[in-house]
Amino acid sequence: MSDFPKPLPQLAGVNAYVPGEAPKNTGGKTYKLASNENPLGASPRAKHVYAELAAKMDLYPDGAARELKAAIAKKHGLDVKRLVVGAGSDDIFLMLGRAYLGPGDESINTAHAFAIYAIIAQQQGAKVVEIAEKDFTADVDAILAAVTPRTKMVWLANPNNPTGTYLPYDEVKRLHAGLPPHVMLVLDGAYAEFVSKNDYASGIELASQFGNVIMTRTFSKLYGLAGLRVGWGYAPEHIVDAIERVRMPFNVNLPAQAAAIAALEDDAFTEQSLAHNAAELPRLAGELVKLGLSVIDGVGNFVVAEFPAAKGKTAGEALNYLKDRGVTVRSLAGYKMANHLRISVGTTEANNAALALLKEFLGK
Question: Hey, do 9-42+268-363 and 44-265 end up sharing a CATH topology, with the first three levels equal?
């Protein structure tokens, strides 16, 4: 064994990312509420374009994704030269890690942040600095207090996954104002479109004004293109340049680019998706509370519920009870929230099925 090729030593501490589980085949209807996917599917326009491109699978995509960047810039009123695209926003995170993090650097994320931030920092040999949260929400003062001369990156998902909480824009600006210029603030806006709070902003303004901010978005949630892997980021041109130097050629495939452009143009589908979430998110949360569960006040497209610690009522037992009956939700044990489950907003039918099973489980 000692003669075999050895991986980088920092990989010994990396735990691979674990996605939400697909439902078990129970012979009846099954529902996946574990991955925050769009319950209405994908944009009909995107599906049509994707099907048309089956005849062009022999062609390379545009490596610079020029048409997709132009569509994003038009939709959001952005400078196309400051856009980057990736195979999902996590591809952009990986490129940021490759470009900016190395051994001896420090990378800050909050205690219940999206797991991929710490994984990328560990892969690069950087030290992960984990900051405690207040009521499952990022604590700006605690983050700023942890910054040292070795800090290179601060990650902030806003809204946060998996908790669903968010920081008001004034707090995000305060966080940025407290960071030294050499520290990059990564604003992950994967769930930004779902937030209707007056005090919220995704961070495009900060990324436009300052040299150490990048904001990312995804087509996986609202647009329903999780299976195609498309994400984008907005940043100063010098950050874009660094990302382009580490980006793999043709990282976003041909049908993914075309489907993303079509999805951006399908306002009817996005409006329908947002209306469904606006109705079902509070209903799902309210029904969970009626079952006696504590629910985190979230603003994404999912609900996080806390289960009792008593044997027979725990989150782990509830997870298995649902799974055995064809419904999967997300365990948060890996996020140091062992008593909690994350439940994606599904179709009305799927939400009702999950609620009915939880009522059975908690009533036993």
Answer: no
Cα–Cα nearest to 341, from 363, 308, 299, 310: 308
For 319-336, how does the pLDDT look when each residue is reduced to its tens digit (9 = 90+)? 999 999 999 999 999 999
Q: How many CB atoms lie within 10 A of CB 268?
A: 11
SS3 275: helix
Domain ranges of the chain: 9-42+268-363, 44-265
Provide the pairing of β-strand 127-131 with 83-86: unpaired
Spelled out in words, what is the top-level CATH class assigned to the domain 9-42+268-363?
alpha beta
Residue 137 tokens, joined? 């929400």
- 3-state secondary structure at position 343: strand
- CATH assignment of 44-265, given 3.40.50.300, 3.30.360.10, 3.30.43.10, 3.40.640.10? 3.40.640.10
Please tell me the distance from the alpha carbon of residue 18 to that of residue 108, in angstroms, as a whole number.
21
Task: Tell me the pLDDT tens digit for each residue of 65-86.
Answer: 999 999 999 999 999 999 999 9
Query: Does the model's pTM come out above 0.90?
Result: yes
User: Which secondary structure element, helix H or strand E, spans residue 289, and what is its range?
Assistant: helix 267-290
Cα separation, 159 vs 147, in Å, equals 22
Residue 98 parent element (H or E): helix 89-100
pLDDT at 274 over 90: yes
Residue ranges of the alpha helices (H) in the chain?
A: 44-52, 66-76, 89-100, 116-123, 140-145, 169-177, 204-209, 237-246, 254-265, 267-290, 315-323, 348-363
Please name the residues in contact with 154: beta carbons below 8 A apart, sequence gap of 6 or more.
107, 108, 109, 143, 147, 175, 179, 183, 184, 185, 186
User: Tokens representing 175?
Assistant: 């966080």
> Where is 127: in which H helix or E strand?
strand 127-131
